[in-house]
């Protein structure tokens, strides 16, 4: 680490406007901070052109003078950091953290009690992060933020890839529109969800992906959301200014803090090449280093599960239809009549264990194994699950022993039904139960309205809960994959046992009526900016009515697109979500899911345009093997891939899983072609992707034996 | 147990009004149930005169048809129970549970989905209890009660002893007024409190004590408040009808239930002799029997504490003034400058242990022993205490060992600052820490606004919490004395480790400006109907400015009154609240506190008039010793005590601790006289009590030796 520290003391009083500037290490980004009539502002230029116009900074406090104006003096300090660090798992083996820093210490006047507010800016080559810091001081001990007033002033009516701002769900299809069109499109963007609370006709969520008319890509998000309210953005669509809009607690307050403390980082990733947005590591870099000492138990996992059959309605989470209301500890399941559709039976689970073992999967997830699913949803039921009591037809010990014998790990499922107090009350017992029975990873769920009522999924109170569950899991050496929890903000750097989140519209929506075919070309630019997603790809049977005659959903994707997701949707946790019997029909395509790696030496973003296409190549950690994925939007498109990332002088076997020429996500989704060719550093590929299609390539270093009989690309 | 079961099936359709009656075992109370135009009603007569006029019964449901009207048929069943049971501790060794029961099963019409509601009435000789019961049924699984509509229609403009209805505090001075005067007096009745939420200008709390103009005493309360919202009463002061008013959850809903379930019992104690109100065991009888198998660890305790010195402002809970805000686990107390006023120092605590050991006390309570008191209050601080980390000047292990050596038990203190989630998160660790260090009882506290904000102290959500903390304590064999928690409703029958509650204006208010001199003549008729109170009597120094020159409070009580409280304010947990040095000045009076028992064979209520006076005699369990207490209201009064409760043919030494002739709670509070005389079954005592005064008598069986030289009364 090279570290350069300069200290500038500017004691500037009675100037109308004065400022401070700092550039990125490569000089392309220039951040300007200024104090304008006592109000702090910042602006950001890229390659000499404005990307963020002068934007106000500040916070409204409850029952106290605001941190918005009345700033009369400031000091500033410069710093520069250039270091590299190694994540426990990730898109690359080592990550460079290279930025220049500007720490502005602002002092308020007497009517604002002479208080001090710090704003810390970090300017990277690919964007900036900044946050507010509240030093310990006499006139600021405990305080309540009633709103954060951070602006992001746009330079024009950009194109945005957005979902409605909402305190309770992120599970929307993305809209692509001009900023000026958001208000008009909002009603159709707010599709039904089991828990949702929108707040403004121009409110949108982060990470927000933007593109200017002159081809600048801008991404707005946050990093290190710890014990603070989740940030949304509200657009002033007359002036094209976004302003932070925090998720409230039950009584409408936004954040409770005490000094010393800091806010999360507000991040702006900027480039004129969309691929740089995907390659940015700003979100991780702005988080604290790993706090878990022994990480030997944290490892990527590929898994299957007893899940898709319930999602599609082929089977059920519940065991019986006997009870309109279940009382845990009282209701006697041993005498209940089974409904005959329960998915998590010992027999079915053992079948899955067999399949996992046969095909080299690490784990099997089982949902609906524990009692309480008869009335778990929509009933504001406090004591809804106990997380330790299996249904009569699920032999927990038997399954445990069988899985162990087969070398497969069971993955625990903790649906909380958003009865959060109940979950916290049972957390120690539930985690201990996992350890006692050999479960090392848990999928947790927060479906439905938060209990206690009045609170929201993304409030400070709940953000604190997800973190509590995560840190406690680390104590038990348990990996967490939290669904319906707040979207990630790079916290997996600090707590790498957070191996995935849902926090967006995942594959399940393909069985709830379908998602847009280009959905997966947007997610890496939005949801994945904060961390990996348990997207649960790998659906081979697109016609859901074949699983459940009452469900007419269609999976808007080709099989080749489904395979590509294992590369394009980075996650150390990857599910093969479809039923074993569907894979058995397409074992040649399934081979890619079996082969693809989970952890990467490096990642290259070959092609990218949000909403339209992206192609990523990744080198498997500790090997010379590469995997390439391409996902394509609504229209067919031909990719041009250059294999110059391969090692000089080496030959590789590339297995290309591509859409057939007449493939189409809706009309011909299962039409794929697989070909095996030799590639080297000089190879080039021109490859067609169908609408909602894509391709996946495995590139394995060859030897004479294995290359024999193969043609060059 | 004698049990008589009769089953009456009344299938009455298409009658305008029809009813069912049931009398108390002694025939003096008559309950009438009727269905009037599809609406259930009840009325209650005492000795042939109405005490409750026809009153509506029912519940409003959210988003569902109400349980208020549309009842078309009912069945009823009679039952009778006469049993006795032995409490683990109590006012008497054995309690008779003798009632006639009427179970009404009501059926609604088609527009109300043919649902069934049960109302169960139990009629005792001294009052009634009734509750709603929701049987399991097809059209009623999970439901939300938006309001309970239980009426108590008064027969006139009675006199009431009331405190303002409030969702967050019970710590008010009692008002005595006509019902018609409540509205006008409400503003002055709502005195300042650190957390308070009143809801109506005619809203009052239970237990509510009433007296009719023709001398009938009526007490309204509830029993077995489990997982339900606390009931207040709202008065329609035109028609003199009280109606139940439940405490809301954060979102305004009152109760979440599922069938099968029951509400708490609504109780009406009735007599023309105020003493019967005190003698009533209805509240306990309506609770479930003891659920704790091994109760060997539950035992009454007399204790002193490091507490009054902080309450008066003589010393402090906090250790340092260095930190405007404390961050547990980060803030370094080892280097902080002590403020020099910390009460919970090792030295001071050891002094208290010495005093406790010397005078035969069971325990020593220490408040302010754990870090976090610097910013604990009013800051909406989530992680406010960890319940296990002592201040640097409190040697926990040293104190523990010293106490053990001296044969004294330490009593733990868990102030939660109403950060309830934080307490639940630490509960297991905190309880285990207690067991590891020999603490078997905890005083818990819920000062300030409930976190999460929006919730109230007495909502279903919080009631569930107090019960959770109590039941978990039972698992650890820990006794609980919860302050600022919901007022008790006889739950100590079921969980006898609930050895006391505060839940009313206790002695501390004498150091916060003072309470009314007759306060203690009201509490046994109101707060104590639900269970014992940790009132913390025993103040000998009434002039608080002698402890803290900045505090001009005066304890509105004489020393004799303070002694009497150990008898009149029944509790298995009794504190001697004053400082050891104050007791050392009045060791002859202090002797009564040392002698008085904590657990009773039987209790006799010799004289009683709420707000004016009461005299109680109790026989110590397992002995022939009696203790008598009298507390008196605002004016001096002479009691006439008949000792006919003593054993035939035996002589006893009575030590009478009485007000001196010129004693007065304000002018001459420390003037008392002690005399020792011989009493027997035929003795009579005429004894003056000063304003705010009283007397206490210990009656010990004598023998020739001990009686020598004493005069007969």
TrEMBL record, chains A, B:
<dbReference type="InterPro" id="IPR014718">
    <property type="entry name" value="GH-type_carb-bd"/>
</dbReference>
<dbReference type="InterPro" id="IPR052720">
    <property type="entry name" value="Glycosyl_hydrolase_97"/>
</dbReference>
<dbReference type="InterPro" id="IPR013785">
    <property type="entry name" value="Aldolase_TIM"/>
</dbReference>
<protein>
    <submittedName>
        <fullName>Glycoside hydrolase family 97 protein</fullName>
    </submittedName>
</protein>
<feature type="domain" description="Glycosyl-hydrolase 97 catalytic">
    <location>
        <begin position="307"/>
        <end position="504"/>
    </location>
</feature>
<dbReference type="InterPro" id="IPR029486">
    <property type="entry name" value="GH97_N"/>
</dbReference>
<dbReference type="Pfam" id="PF10566">
    <property type="entry name" value="Glyco_hydro_97"/>
</dbReference>
<comment type="subunit">
    <text>Monomer.</text>
</comment>
<keyword id="KW-0106">Calcium</keyword>
<feature type="domain" description="Glycosyl-hydrolase 97 C-terminal oligomerisation">
    <location>
        <begin position="599"/>
        <end position="699"/>
    </location>
</feature>
<dbReference type="InterPro" id="IPR017853">
    <property type="entry name" value="GH"/>
</dbReference>
<keyword id="KW-0378">Hydrolase</keyword>
<feature type="domain" description="Glycosyl-hydrolase 97 N-terminal">
    <location>
        <begin position="22"/>
        <end position="289"/>
    </location>
</feature>
<dbReference type="InterPro" id="IPR019563">
    <property type="entry name" value="GH97_catalytic"/>
</dbReference>
<dbReference type="Pfam" id="PF14509">
    <property type="entry name" value="GH97_C"/>
</dbReference>
<dbReference type="Pfam" id="PF14508">
    <property type="entry name" value="GH97_N"/>
</dbReference>
<dbReference type="InterPro" id="IPR029483">
    <property type="entry name" value="GH97_C"/>
</dbReference>
<dbReference type="GO" id="GO:0016787">
    <property type="term" value="F:hydrolase activity"/>
</dbReference>
